[in-house]
Specification:
Elements: H1 3-10, H2 14-38, H3 45-52, H4 66-80, H5 82-89, H6 95-112, H7 114-124, H8 129-155, H9 165-178, H10 191-204
Helix pairs in contact: 2-3, 2-4, 2-7, 4-7, 5-6, 5-8, 6-8, 6-10, 8-9
């Protein structure tokens, strides 16, 4: 949402402000769903407005153009996913326990937030390099946090010493992100079962025998 829109909302009465904030969250969620379903280029502002239940012109109270929605979809996906996961990875405690928490939370996010995961994947490829930098940095910080966990796990004697922490972090996160391609609630797979399998597979090659 641009600065003018935020300023307008902040000066509205509480009920109006809450309504606009709720409507804005709906716009972002619908945009993510349509980007995932049809692709960014094939999605029009008119479709987004119609699905939200508003006039196309009303969207310009929130954004300057469709490209703005790319950034907001990614920011929402990051706030729900990458930033939360980074926080989990940086908590105090034994590295193996934190790594288990990260794997479980990452798998759960992919499984339960499929719309934002798919919307993130679609939106990211259309960002300009300048706009992508914000998200690339957040993703790198997450990967570095996982890398540090693996190195700590090695130092604590619970993870194998013959593996490279950076390569291992890239492999682990690549595996977890790949769950998006096939793990669907409609398949009958439960969140708990997916997370249990992700732990076994994700830690199997890392844990010291």
């Amino acid at each position: 949402m641009d600065a003018n829109s935020l300023d307008n909302i902040s000066h509205a009465d509480p009920a109006q402000r809450k309504d606009r904030e709720d409507r804005w969250q709906q716009v972002v969620a619908v945009s993510a769903a349509l980007f995932a379903e049809k692709g960014y280029e094939a999605t029009s502002l008119r479709e987004i407005a119609e699905r939200v239940g508003m006039l196309k012109g009303s969207l310009y109270h929130y954004i300057n153009g469709k490209s703005d929605l790319l950034v907001h979809v990614l920011r929402e996906a990051h706030s729900r996913g990458v930033l939360v996961l980074t926080g989990i990875a940086e908590r105090e405690g034994r590295a193996l326990e934190r790594l288990e928490d990260v794997i479980t939370a990452h798998a759960r996010y992919i499984f339960t937030e499929r719309v934002f995961t798919a919307g993130f994947i679609e939106a990211h490829r259309h960002l300009t390099p300048d706009r992508a930098r914000e998200f690339d940095l957040a993703e790198r910080n997450y990967r570095k946090a996982v890398e540090r966990l693996i190195a700590r796990g090695q130092a604590e004697g619970e993870l194998r010493h013959d593996i490279d922490p950076k390569v291992s972090a890239l492999c682990l996160l690549g595996f977890l992100n790949s769950l998006h391609g096939w793990a669907k609630p409609a398949s009958g797979l439960t969140t708990r079962r997916l997370c249990d399998h992700a732990l076994v597979m994700g830690l199997g090659g890392l844990r010291k025998a």
